Each structure stands twice: as structure tokens, then as C-alpha cells.
Amino acid sequence: MLDHWLYIGLFFFVAMLLPGAAIFIASILAPKKPNPIKSSPYECGIETVGESRIQFKAQYYIYALVFLIFEVEAVFLFPWAAAYNQLTLFMVVEGLIFVLILVGGLLYAWKKGALEWR
């Protein structure tokens, strides 16, 4: 039993050692010629005009997060729908509870105005 943990520990040690060694060797061998062009921020090859930082509304991020949550949870429904003919009554009830929780979350987000694109 202890041998299995030894292999896992060795694996983690090598997994940390190899990338660290590669970064260390690259930092030693890489050419170091800093200049103002290399130090300037790169933004699609175009020089920035005015202030480059703009403020986004948090509403867009919330909209994206709500979409992501419902998209990921919809993936959980695919195996349940594919095996619908083989499900017991308990499994069908559990699936319906899951869908009701999703609908409750959707109604909550709708009531809070997270789905309005302004």
C-alpha cells in the first residue's frame, strides 16, 4: 500500500521538477535585451489613443455567468434524457426536482433583472 503512495509522490515531484527546470533554463539561456518597444503594452499591434482602460458594466458579466450556469446544467440533463425509457420513478422525480431548481434559479435571475440586456 505504501508503494502506491510512493509512486504518486514521485509523480508529483517530477511533475513539479520538469516545468520548473524548463523555466529556470530558459531564464538563464534567453537573451536579455530590454528596450522601450518591448516594455510597452501590446494591444493588437495598434498604438493606443487616449485612455486604454474602459469601464464595462457588470451586467454583461452577470449575463454571461447565468448563461454559463444554465448551459453546464443543461449538459447534466442529456444522460437523463438519453436513458429516459430505463429510468425508475425515483429517477424521474429526481430529474424533475433538478429541473424545478433550474426554473427557480431562472425566475430569480429574471426577477433581479440579470437577463435584461441594457
Keywords:
mainly alpha, 2 domains, Methane Monooxygenase Hydroxylase, Chain G, domain 1, 0% strand, 4 helices, 118 residues
Instruction: Supply the CATH superfamily name of the largest domain.
Output: NADH:ubiquinone/plastoquinone oxidoreductase, chain 3
Order of helices and strands: HHHH
Helix content: 55-70%
Uncertain segments are none
Which architecture name of the largest domain does CATH use?
A: Up-down Bundle
Protein structure class: mainly alpha
- Count of runs of 4 or more consecutive helical residues: 4
Q: How many structural domains?
A: 2
Number of strands: 0
Radius of gyration: 26 Å
CATH topology of the largest domain: Methane Monooxygenase Hydroxylase, Chain G, domain 1
Highest CATH level, the class of the largest domain: Mainly Alpha
Question: Sheet bearing the most strands, described?
Answer: none
Strand content: under 5%
The outline comes out as flat
Characterization of the model:
The model has no long low-confidence stretch (mean pLDDT 83). The protein has helices spanning 2-29, 36-39, 58-82, 89-112. It has 118 residues and is mostly helical. It has two domains: 2-39; 58-112, Up-down Bundle (Methane Monooxygenase Hydroxylase, Chain G, domain 1). The protein is flat and about 70 Å long. The chain is built from four helices and no strands.
